[in-house]
Amino acid sequence: MDQNTEYAEIFNQVSVLYELSLSTGNSLDVQENCDRFLKKLMSRKRVTYVSVWIKDEYMYLRDEDTASLVYANPEYYITQRKIAKTHPLFSDIPSKGYLVRDAGDCALNPPLLKAGDLKKGTCIVYPLNCFGILELHWLNELKDPVNVANQLDEVISKFAFSLEASLLHKRALWEAEEKNKAYEARMNAESMNRAKNEFLATMSHELRTPLNSIIGFSDALLEGLSGELNNKQIRYIGNISKSGKHLLSIINDILDLSKIEADEMTLNCVQLSVMAMLEDIAMTLKPISSKKNVSVTISCANDTFLEADPDKLKQILLNLIGNAVKFSHEGGTVDVSSYEDDGMVRVLINDNGIGISAADQQEIFKPFKQLDSSLDRRYGGTGLGLYLVKKLTEIHGGAVSVKSEVGKGSTFTLSLPVNPA
Ligand SMILES: Nc1ncnc2c1ncn2[C@@H]1O[C@H](COP(=O)(O)OP(=O)(O)OP(=O)(O)O)[C@@H](O)[C@H]1O
Ligand SMILES: [Mg+2]
Known about the structure:
Elements: H1 3-22, H2 30-45, E1 49-54, E2 66-73, E3 82-84, E4 99-102, E5 122-128, E6 132-138, H3 145-222, H4 231-261, E7 270-273, H5 274-292, E8 295-300, E9 305-308, H6 310-326, E10 333-341, E11 344-351, H7 358-361, H8 385-395, E12 399-405, E13 409-417
Parallel strand pairs: 8-10
Antiparallel strand pairs: 1-2, 1-6, 2-3, 4-5, 5-6, 7-9, 10-11, 11-13, 12-13
Helix pairs in contact: 1-3, 2-3, 3-4, 4-8, 5-6, 6-8
The structure holds adenosine-5'-triphosphate and magnesium ion.
Adenosine-5'-triphosphate binds near residues 327, 369 and 381.
């Protein structure tokens, strides 16, 4: 080659590279960015096939274990768009520079491509920073592939940076979209929750009115206000009254639940004697405990007082002591003890009943959670009791916890501040 031809050749190379470098980095769209630069590269450098593989299209945001083919020309040759990051395609690629590969080892080979003639020619693979690779394939074998690869090295590294910017842009858009979706989902959940609480509150209210009249009239009949009843009538009306009261207690629990969830539960706190409260509850539970032959003992100093809402505290203790009786065996024992400790009143409710496994101890304070959910379950109730206990205790500034062993029994500890803030 004479000197003039050599100069002309160099001039030609430089102008091609200049033109290529102008076509990098003009767009933030991945496809457009690839299209503009790689199409030009193919026509100026007579490349037959190009492909761009990205290790993680979302720039490691999703931590995918596959790499994606984000660009290929000609497009119709592609049969597979995702491959494992561990694929040999990614091995041996230097972090800088390039790799001249035997066309037979080129990634565009079957099974990725259907065409049969791809084992011919030269293949040069460039790393795209650390996020992917660019593969160039000439069907006509290059005479001096190293020279061509060196010429293109700089302009391809420029392309890598502009492609990285496009991918980061895509990742930012995706991230914003995900955040938006999460925000919408939260808003939907919140408004559904509000609607549910309103529904529960209205329904419970509407159900209470007729129920109170069922209970009121059946009790009046039982008291003989409308004349003498025979034994069968007494039994039937007694059942109506008992079932009505049970239904009312469930409805009241649901009403409490909706009030708590809507942050509408208010407390009317007064000074209370713990001993008097515990004795009152033991009396209330007497019919149930005697029927099961479960003995309930109370030990508490007479002068233990605390400030609390009497109805709510009764509800808390009725459920905890009621559970202890309910989940005790025939002839079991329930010990309730209370003492004051550093500004807190602690009430320990201990039973030697069926017990609760460690895993279930996390679950029982959730609403409607009952450990025996079989159709023929032995114990009644709705599973709202402990959820309400927890919430009502927390509203008082206290806490409730459980220690238990299956088959041996349980101890629930209620801690309430003597003077709530
Ligand atoms: N002392 C206890 N011993 C064994 N299991 C218990 C005890 N207390 C509660 N549990 C378990 O925790 C579950 C939830 O208790 P919770 O008081 O919330 O519901 P419930 O008593 O079944 O029904 P409800 O209180 O609404 O009438 C019970 O169904 C039971 O499986
Ligand atoms: Mg209960």
